[in-house]
Amino acid sequence: MMETLILTHLYFLGSVRRQVHLATLFLGTILFMLPSYINAFSLGINAFERVSKDFGLTLIGYFGIAMAILLASTSIPRDLENRSIYPVLARPVRRYQYLLAHYLALVALLACSYLFLGLCLSAAVSALTRQIDLTLFIAVFTSFLQACVVGAITSAVSTVASPALAGTVGAFVFLVGSLPGAFIRFFLVEDRDNQFAAALATGLKSALPNLAVFSLKDPIVHDITFNHSYIFALIGYAL
Fold this sequence. Notes:
The protein is an all-alpha fold. Helices cover 79% and strands 0% of the residues. It is built from eleven helices and no strands. Helix 2 packs antiparallel against helix 3, helix 3 runs parallel beside helix 6 and helix 6 runs parallel beside helix 11.
């Protein structure tokens, strides 16, 4: 286990040296200015707060997925290309420890990014509403779990495929896995009357992880009550 933690620390520092965090800092700056920009339209305090939360959480979610796919699809192939994997595997390190270290480094980097972006959005909204809303971090946390699932699948594919193909598979899993059932029912069946496409989409969605369950943005933004034990169920589902 110690070897895995050492490799995780090494790969985490490698991602930091690649300056991946600069994109997080840039988005954090946008999120910090976002509520003030939306407030300039004079939508009223309730509308302003909801629009800011909705747009901000959407940005955080898509950014996290993009980061997970990008890092997961390139980290292991980069080691193979640079041949830095051979000195590692020449030591008493098992292959599963090597793969797990890459994934844990990805999870650590995603956790830092999501925490920073959540703090930026929460601080920006609280500065104008004069109220601290910690429920934002529930939606941020579930988005983080979603990104971890997509990152795990992308990392697994990257061991046998090129970075481009692994990234494509990761994006496909996210798009199909997060496809709402209402879209299939109303758009493909009732509106388009395309039974084949609906059956294909339903079959693919059943075979892939249901990423739509991780979306708690709407309940948080619109103050819809939900059972908080659902969060623990999501943690178990992600694991």
